[in-house]
C-alpha cells in the first residue's frame, strides 16, 4: 500500500490559487513511512528513541534495526499532510514522484474541515 500522501497546490510558486493538487507516489520497495503516521509500542521507542534532529528523525527510526516490522496500510485516506513554507523538511515537488491529483477526493476526505483548507488549495 501507499504509506502517505502529501498534497499541495500544483502551481504553488507561480499561482497558489490554481485549484490543482499533486500527490507524491511512494517508490516500490522504498522503506519509508511518514513520521506523523507512526503507531508503535512504548518499549520500541524506549529502546530506540528519536535522535535530536529537526529533519529526518523519522527516517532514522524507520531505518533502524529495531523497526523490523513495518506496515503501510492499503487505505491511506486517514492522513493528509499540507506542504507550506513552515515545513521543517522542504519538499521538491517537481520530480517524477509527484503526480497530478484531483481536488474532489481530498474534499471528500476532509469533509466539513474542507473549508479550513480550501483557500490554500485555491478552491475556496
Structural notes for this entry:
The chain is of the alpha+beta class. It contains 4 helices and 4 strands, in the order ββααββαα. The chain has helices at residues 42-47, 57-63, 103-110, 114-121; strands at residues 6-9, 21-24, 81-82, 98-101. The longest helix is centred in the C-terminal third of the chain and has 8 residues, at 103-110. The chain starts with 5 loop residues before the first strand and ends with a helix. Mean pLDDT is 70; it is low at 10-17.
State the main characteristics.
124 residues, alpha+beta, 4-stranded mixed beta sheet, 4 helices, 11% strand
Short description, anyone?
The chain has 124 residues and is α+β, with helices and mostly antiparallel strands.
Give the SSE layout.
Layout: E1 6-9, E2 21-24, H1 42-47, H2 57-63, E3 81-82, E4 98-101, H3 103-110, H4 114-121
- What is the mean predicted local confidence, pLDDT? 70
Order of helices and strands: EEHHEEHH
Number of strands: 4
Ranges where pLDDT stays below 50 over 5 or more residues in a row are 10-17
Provide the domain count: 1
Structural class, by secondary structure, is alpha+beta
Number of helices in the DSSP assignment: 4
Give the helix proportion (percent range): 10-25%
Largest sheet: 4 strands, mixed
Beta-strand percentage range: 5-15%
Q: Report the span from N to C terminus.
A: 31 Å
Question: If you compute it from the alpha carbons, what radius of gyration comes out, rounded to the nearest whole angstrom?
Answer: 16 Å
Read across the widest sheet, the strand sequence of neighbours is 3-1-2-4
Shape, principal axes of CA atoms: globular
